[in-house]
Specification:
single chain; alpha/beta; Rossmann fold; six-stranded mixed beta sheet; four-stranded antiparallel beta sheet; 13 helices; 10 strands; 39% helix; globular
Length: 291
């Protein structure tokens, strides 16, 4: 294949054969070129004008480095939102800002129904988990490998007022996921990749959060486990009524799962819409879906 042919076929990110993958810098430039004028009103409409989690004009980053620039984000209770975009776009930084892992320079983060919203930006991560009902499910390798599955779940309830409450919550998780119950006395290091991810998700459930911040749920997993993880998340949203905000490098799987999708570019929302609509968007497909 000639170099010209390769350039003509270059049209994807996180997908496709080697010759179809373009650099992060090229994706960022092309995504910026197709960015739409996404208003805060547009984002509110996508959340049914009744958001449970809202970010308003947020500027945030690390130290003196500002990564997010006047970001707005709205997701309704029991709704799911997937953030996609090139590396360095600020996707995980949004999750970090919500949970308190970085610096907020201005703007507001609020949760609550209707008029009962409260500002949570200044709360500590522990307070956000215990009082605001927000749990952060980290990327892979966040379990304690030398502890048993059972002990890992108990650690998920470390903010409970009494150890017995954590153990009671862990039993509810075992009732829900027999696959984990069968391995409760096994050290976490012997679990398969899919089982480890199930344990990471389950540990977050011990505190019974309302909002799940899920960072790259498919990363490092074999294809046969990816569907399992998304089935678990779908059950948590549709059956248990969790609100889910996700960052996902597998844009196709993330948008297939989520009610809503935002494309982030250089710390700003470039495109937003229903997940199904973004899957059908030819520009999103060319840049992020490998086609």
């Amino acid at each position: 294949m000639s170099e010209d042919d390769k350039k003509q076929r270059a049209g994807g990110y996180h997908g496709g054969a080697v010759e179809t993958v373009i650099s992060v810098e090229a994706v960022t430039a092309q995504a910026a070129a197709i960015a739409q004028d996404v208003s805060n009103e547009d984002l509110l409409n996508l959340a049914g004008n009744d958001p449970y989690l809202s970010i308003d004009n947020l500027n945030a980053g690390y130290g003196r480095m500002e990564i997010l620039h006047n970001i707005n984000l709205h997701v309704a209770r029991k709704q799911s939102l997937c953030l996609i975009g090139p590396n360095g776009a600020g996707k995980s930084t949004i999750l970090h800002a919500i949970f308190g892992f970085n610096d907020i320079f201005s703007g507001a983060i609020r949760i609550g129904d209707g008029a009962n919203k409260r500002e949570i930006g200044a709360m500590s991560p522990s307070s956000k988990l215990k009082e605001a009902g927000i749990a952060y499910i980290l990327q892979d390798k966040s379990v304690f490998p030398g502890m048993t599955v059972e002990e890992n779940l108990w650690m998920g309830g470390f903010l409970k007022d009494k150890p017995a409450e954590a153990k009671e919550a862990a039993e509810k998780v075992f009732d829900k996921y027999p696959r984990l119950a069968a391995r409760r006395k096994h050290q976490a290091k012997v679990l398969s990749g899919g089982e480890r991810r199930l344990l990471e998700i389950s540990r977050a459930l011990v505190m019974n959060p309302e909002i799940l911040l899920v960072d790259e749920p498919s990363i490092g997993l074999e294809p046969r486990f990816i569907d399992m993880v998304f089935d678990i998340l779908r059950d948590l949203q549709e059956v248990e009524g969790k609100t889910i905000l996700m960052v996902e490098q597998n844009a196709k799987k993330g948008l297939e799962f989520a009610d809503l999708g935002y494309v982030l570019v250089s710390g700003e929302v470039a495109i937003a819409g229903k997940g199904d609509d973004l899957l059908e968007n030819p520009d999103v497909g060319r840049l992020f879906l490998g086609g």
